[in-house]
Design goal:
The chain is α+β, with helices and mostly antiparallel strands and about 160 residues long. It is built from nine helices and three strands. It is about 45% helix and about 15% strand. The model has no long low-confidence stretch (mean pLDDT about 90).
Length: about 160
């Protein structure tokens, strides 16, 4: 029997999101970043100028021209509209989420909940974790743990 896998990441000062994978396929995904517009500009530049160096594009003014073009074409607004398209809260039943939890996820994973503001979307990670019962975790580099006087207490 195959089990679903939730890959959840939360780099609190930059981005958060998840991928829900079942039977080898991504069935739900979400990616929210503080650097929302910059990420769109960067990916656009990568597609158009795959051989160019980021610093060259930045210092040469290319990134600013791309930003202006994307703003004029309302691309940032369009991408915001698509932000939750693949979040698929109903798929969390595979992880044992109750109907109430799924409804709570549906409520928070929406443009109306964040008032169409990407900065408010960054705050959703705590609500998401609370709804699903994901405990707070920290990453500690192995060498720091081994060198710690509290090594025995940590394990």
């Amino acid at each position: 029997m195959e089990a679903p896998v939730l890959y959840f990441y939360n780099f609190a000062d930059h981005e958060w999101g998840y991928q829900l994978i079942h039977q080898g396929k991504e069935i739900a995904t979400l990616h929210i970043t503080y650097e929302y517009e910059e990420e769109i500009v960067f990916h656009t530049a990568e597609e158009r100028y795959p051989e160019s160096d980021f610093t060259e594009l930045l210092l040469g003014g290319t990134l600013e021209k791309i930003r202006e073009e994307l703003e004029a074409a309302s691309v940032f607004e369009q991408k915001l509209e698509e932000l939750f398209n693949d979040s698929r809260p109903e798929q969390f039943h595979l992880l044992g989420a109750s109907g109430e939890q799924i409804e709570q996820l549906r409520e928070i994973l929406s443009l109306s909940f964040i008032n169409r503001n990407i900065n408010q979307a960054m705050e959703l990670s705590d609500k998401f974790k609370e709804i699903l019962g994901i405990e707070e975790m920290s990453y500690i580099r192995h060498e720091r743990v081994v060198e710690s006087e509290d090594y025995d207490e940590l394990f």
